[in-house]
Every structure is written in C-alpha cells, then in structure tokens.
Amino acid sequence: MSAGHTQPTASVSPLRIDRLSLPDSLTLVHGDRHPLGALGYGTPANVDWMPTVDAQVLLGNAPCADILQTRLPITAGTTGCVRWRSDGHWMLGTIDLDEGAEPEGLAALAERAYRDLFQAQEAAGCPHLQRVWNYLPQINGDGGGLERYRQFNLGRQRAFLAAGRAAFEGAPAACALGIRQGALSVRFLAGRHAPLPVENPRQVSAYRYPPTYGPSAPTFSRAALSALGDDQVALFISGTASIVGHETLHAGDVQAQTRETLRNLSAVIDAAHRHGSARFALADLHGVVYIRHAADAPAVQRLLAEAVGETAPLVRQAVFLEADVCRQDLLVEIEAHAVSTGTLRA
C-alpha cells in the first residue's frame, strides 16, 4: 500500500492518546483499555512501558507523559536493540544506544538503530511508521569534520534506502533534538496502515534540502495524518522551527523565531485540512516546546499565550524541555499532535 492511501478507520484497532500527569499515568484505569506505552517528560527511568525523554523539564512543570492506549492485550518483545510493545495493530518502540560502548561512530550507530527498528516492525506486524522521535547527545557538535546531526542524517537515510523504505516522499513525521549527554535515543509509533504525509507550502520539504545542509538530507515529512479508529484522526506534526524555504529566519531573536514557528504550524494545519474532513486548530495542539536556552522559556510561553490564549491546550498542557535544536542558529522548536473526528482522503 502506498503512503498516499489509508484504510477505513473501521479496520483500525482504536488508539487513544492522552497527556496525563505522572500520578494519573501510573494509575491508569480506563475500562478495557491497555497502555501500549508512553513518552515520559521528567518521569522516572525505571517504568519500562514509559521511556523518558532525557531532557530537563522547564518552567517548574510537573512530570507528565503522552499515554497511548488500546483495547487489545499488549505483547512486549525485543528485536536487536529495539524494545517494543504491540497490540498487533499498533506498536511503540524504544531504542537507547550508548555511544561510549559502540566504536563505529554516530552515522553507523544511527544506521544500526534504524535497521533494527525496521526489523522490529516486521516482527510486530506493524510495517508503517507513523511518528519518530530522535534524541542525540551534542547534536551540533563536531563529529570529526562533519556535524553530528549531519552524521545522524547520513546513517538514518542509509538505513531507509537499504530497507526499501520511503526516505523522501512518504517519509514519516519526525523530530531530532539534542540532549546534553546520554544515549542515542529513538522512540517510534508504527501501525498496520500507512499514514498520509503532509508538507508545509512555506518550506522546502526537508528531504529536498540542498547539499549545503549535509551529504544526506533529513528523512522526515513535516507532518502525518493517521486514522486511529473510531472515526478519530491524529495529526502528528514534526519538529517545527523558524525556517522558510530552507533557510533559518530571525537568527538570535527567540521571540521572532517563536512567531515564525507558529506561522509554520498554522500552515501545516491548513495543509492537513486538504486531506480529509478532520479539523484541527493551533490552540488545541498538544505541543512539546524545545528551548535551546532555558532562560528563554518564559518569553516563549508568553508569546504562545498571546497567540492562542492562556487556557488553550497549546499553552496549558505544553511541555517545555531544554534541548538543542538541529541547527545552531535555531533557538526554539515545537512538535505537536492533535486528534479530531473525521475521515481521510488521499
């Protein structure tokens, strides 16, 4: 099945996504639903079904998690370096590779991570990536003459091409952020049916960036639409920053970069509306806001509140994390998701 088509939502085992506090996450009681897994923010590292993002939570916010639940029993497994959980229709996978114990370098390490990721998808019967989260130690650091983010892109794209996966049109929604230390970490959501990729008309598609950004372009779409079942559609928006065309705008100005980022998020939402009846709004996004300099977080939060109102989910339920963005001149990046009733069309 091509990435431009989706199955009817009735054929999908329903998936539910909730952003919950840590206490509510650990005491989940939702009738017959089962936790497929979660992405934790500021959460303990010892909860096996809730892999945490190794970045500091800002603004004094309490730990929370994005919880994914289904109605079917969960099977857990390990394939290569991938730990995964699946209900047979959906899977959530986790990769953590310590570079200190791996001699091959970041490009080879990223290639290995994604090679095992694709094998894990085969094992779980969930061949279509919906959303990927990548976290790299020292993302903007020098990796022996090539920036580490560019090394990562090189290895990631090699794995996609070797596996016959869509590395250009049809690539999954994704983000890549820099953590200060720790492992190369990859989290991914996959399913039985292909999502519908969405691009931003204000930006050159990331996989079409010119060679000035490295020997291999980043492998991701700006967003993806996924049928979750029960007539629910998810919009997964990739990491979004102050880029127009392929160039960074407003270098050194976090407030102007935040406003440009919001314009890009709105453009992605508008583009998503052309692919079906599901409707999304900027204010209703559940965002993760990555801030390069922790001191900038209050100003970014203030600008979000001015744009959509203090009580909007984009502000009230946002997670602010200290992290380096993929380009050294970018100070803020926002990735987000939202769920709406509707249908999809190619």
From TrEMBL:
Pfam families: FkbO_Hyg5-like_N (PF21168)
Alphabetized InterPro entries for the sequence: FkbO_Hyg5-like_N (IPR049368), RutC-like_sf (IPR035959)
Name of the protein in its database record: Enamine deaminase RidA (YjgF/YER057c/UK114 family)
Domain Chorismatase FkbO/Hyg5-like N-terminal residue range list: 68-190
Species annotation: Variovorax ginsengisoli
Gene3D superfamilies: RutC-like (3.30.1330.40)
Listed CDD domains: YjgF_YER057c_UK114_like_5
